[in-house]
Amino acid sequence: MSAKSAALPKVVFTRLFDAPRATVWRAWTDAKHLAKWWGPIGWTAPVCRLDARVGGRIHVVMRGPDGEEHPMEGTVTVLDAPRRFAFVSSVPDKAGATMFEVENSVLFAARRRKTLVTLTARVTRITPVAAPYIAGMEAGWCQSLEKLDSTLSGSAKREIVSVRCLEASPAQVYRAWTTSKIITRWWGPKGFTNTISRFEPRAGGRWNLVMHGPDGKDFPNAWRFLELERPRRIVLEHPSKGHHFRILATFSGMGPRTILIFRQVFGEGTAMNPKFRAFLQQANDQMLDRMETELARIL
Predict the structure, then answer these.
(1) Which CATH number is 93's domain given?
(2) Confidence class of residue 3 from pLDDT cuts 50, 70 and 90?
(3) What is the C-alpha radius of gyration for the chain, rounded to an integer number of angstroms?
(4) Host domain of residue 265
(5) How far apart are CA 50 and CA 57, in angstroms?
């Protein structure tokens, strides 16, 4: 069974990567680079073949954290280096029959030493058994693009990543991050409270607060909003010389829920020893637990 094309879903992503256009182009069109980031967080691509020519075949096998493998087939339809790459992808069921088909178009625009990527993924064919896969398409692409960013920047060894499935819409989660009276109730590890003196949720905006620890100690914080894409993405910078890092939070819909990807990325040269990494992971997990509790309270 298939649906009318007008009723079929489409997702569009626009993302600025801190890498030259030629490098980003290669990450999409060279199989050995594609394999490094293709698939959701925690997944790998042990098989990745791409014949980079119009009509060339694409074959990727993704392996999930549970060890189950998920193949994808595709055909290159446009290869206009380094401006546009397009391909048709399909996912077979266990019997080899196509469950759904997607037309994918990727545009690459140079922005000085950075690259603006616009990805459009449009479902063109669907069967009833494909519904769960289609529901997760936005979240899957969102996670892949975060992995691509990590790969291009070389930050994988100096970042802490958390993924949560939230019982709220992306718009509701975005609001919890951009409303001072809400974020003050959940920001920080367990037992912390906050006093916010300045909160400007816009690109270039400042966020000044004092975090009050459960032991009575105060921790002044100064943040800067770098990017806001309602209701999909927020990038914050903590510019302290001794503790410089960014937080990249993305919110993608999966049915009535939201997949949150939380990345804490430290600057080059940061020593990420196991003890420090474990401390940060615990603190982030406690904060995200508090966020979930607050979302449940206000919804």
Answers:
(1) 3.30.530.20
(2) very low
(3) 20
(4) 156-298
(5) 6
